[in-house]
């Protein structure tokens, strides 16, 4: 195919031949990011809708978006956050400026995911755990919730990952 004006992508000037393939498999980083996104959506459904975790997990496993997600991470995060909800809430609550019941369900579940990763997924660098949660808050949270999430999770990391943080300085 020649590089004619009709074969150009009008948004960036590149030819359609060099456009990313829709069928390419997402990178591991993208799969993990998608798993976190789907976990947040599932936790929201669990918290607000009151459905059982097993029902929600089954629904999400047949979600077409799950094809581009790390299914194992999705299950680990969903089950881990639900099973350890009370413990996670105790970990980050001291760093809140208000009662946990006053937080938006999206914010509180982003904090739970981030806290779970900081406490239970030691193979994930603390900066990655915080950044991924901040990105979730930017996409799904209120206007400045990402700043709030960043501040709270930074304090959780200082408490739970002291050695890792000290080694980076």
From TrEMBL:
Family to which the UniProt record says this protein belongs: Belongs to the NusB family.
- Respond yes or no to whether keyword Oxidoreductase is given for this record: no
GO terms (molecular function) for this protein are: RNA binding
Q: In the UniProt record, which is one GO cellular component term?
A: cytosol
Gene transcribed to yield this protein: nusB
What exactly does this protein do?
Answer: Involved in transcription antitermination. Required for transcription of ribosomal RNA (rRNA) genes. Binds specifically to the boxA antiterminator sequence of the ribosomal RNA (rrn) operons.
Composition-biased stretches, type Low complexity, lie in 1-18
**Keyword annotations:** RNA-binding, Transcription, Transcription antitermination, Transcription regulation
Specify the NusB/RsmB/TIM44 domain's residue ranges: 33-157
UniProt-recorded name of the protein: Transcription antitermination protein NusB
Presence of keyword Transcription regulation: yes
Q: Give the classification, highest ranks.
A: Bacteria, Pseudomonadati, Pseudomonadota, Gammaproteobacteria, Oceanospirillales
InterPro entries registered for this protein in UniProt = NusB-like_sf (IPR035926), NusB_fam (IPR011605), NusB_RsmB_TIM44 (IPR006027)
* Region of interest: Disordered: 1-31
BP term (GO), one: DNA-templated transcription termination
């Amino acid at each position: 195919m020649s590089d004619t004006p009709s074969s150009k992508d009008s948004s960036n000037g590149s030819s359609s031949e060099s456009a990313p393939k829709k069928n390419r498999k997402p990178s591991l980083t993208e799969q993990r990011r998608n798993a976190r996104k789907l976990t947040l959506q599932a936790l929201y459904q669990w918290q607000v809708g009151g459905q059982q975790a097993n029902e929600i997990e089954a629904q999400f496993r047949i979600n077409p978006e799950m094809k581009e997600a790390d299914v194992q991470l999705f299950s680990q995060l969903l089950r881990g956050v639900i099973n350890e909800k009370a413990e996670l809430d105790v970990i980050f609550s001291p760093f809140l400026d208000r009662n946990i019941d006053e937080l938006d369900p999206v914010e509180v579940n982003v904090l739970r995911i981030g806290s779970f990763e900081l406490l239970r997924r030691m193979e994930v660098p603390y900066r990655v755990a915080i950044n991924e949660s901040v990105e979730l808050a930017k996409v799904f949270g209120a206007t400045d919730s990402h700043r709030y999430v960043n501040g709270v999770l930074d304090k959780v990391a200082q408490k739970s990952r002291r050695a890792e943080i000290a080694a980076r300085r």
